[in-house]
Each structure stands twice: as structure tokens, then as C-alpha cells.
Amino acid sequence: MIFFCETKLCTYLELNKVMMFAGKMQKALPELLKEYDMAIGIFPRDATNYEFNEETRKLIVFIPSICEVGYRDSSVLRFSDTVSGYLEKGKLADVEGIKTKVMIWVKVTSISTEGSKINFSAGMKKTRSREAYEVLRDGICVEKF
């Protein structure tokens, strides 16, 4: 998929592209998220390159450019070009590189799931419908994180 950003042409990699990390085949990011009971659409569609340390559970996701993603429930997340955190069953903790707009842009520190709900902690806890985050969406390029 190709689309135009404000200042450049952005291309998106195929979602199911298999990555290599440390000489080992790596599953697609949505598969990893699903395995840990996380919504598969919390990251932009083009966030296909990542590193995951199974021992420490540290996840680093690489995004081609700083972007915003709008979701079905009208919420918006802003992503840096690198997002990191610790992946547990139903939770991504100690998040770096994601913001959400409450009244102003606020740093997201944790994302967790509880059944049909997804919780974003950003100085305060904001609960949203998980269904809105189960679909992969394209990011819109922005100039700064």
C-alpha cells in the first residue's frame, strides 16, 4: 500500500512478511500480540519490524516514521519511530514511544486488556472498547512525536 504524507511518499510493508532476528525466523507482529492476548491493531499496519527477547519479554517495535493512527472508537494514538515495552499476557508495560490525546498529548505508560476492554494508562487510566483495536490501520505521518 502506498500513500502520500505531508512531505514524502510513504510505503507500507506487507503485513505477513516474515522477519529474521538473531538468525531465527520471527512471526508477524500481530501473531505475537495475539499470542499474548493483546489487540492485534494497537500498532500501525506498517509496524512489521520488531525485536522480542523471550527471556526478558522486552518488545521493541520499529515504525517507518512518526505517525498517528485513528481507531473506530474515534481515539487517536501517536507513535514515535521506536516503541518499546515489556510484553506480558494481556499487558504491555513500561511503554515508551506512544502518546494518546486526552485534552493534550499524554505519554502512554501501559496498555492492558481485560476481556472486551483495552486499558491505556497515561497518568490516568482510560478504558476503551477492545474491538476498535482488533483491526490493523494505516498511520498518518506527522512531523513530531
From TrEMBL:
<protein>
    <recommendedName>
        <fullName>DUF538 domain-containing protein</fullName>
    </recommendedName>
</protein>
<dbReference type="InterPro" id="IPR007493">
    <property type="entry name" value="DUF538"/>
</dbReference>
<dbReference type="Pfam" id="PF04398">
    <property type="entry name" value="DUF538"/>
</dbReference>
<dbReference type="InterPro" id="IPR036758">
    <property type="entry name" value="At5g01610-like"/>
</dbReference>
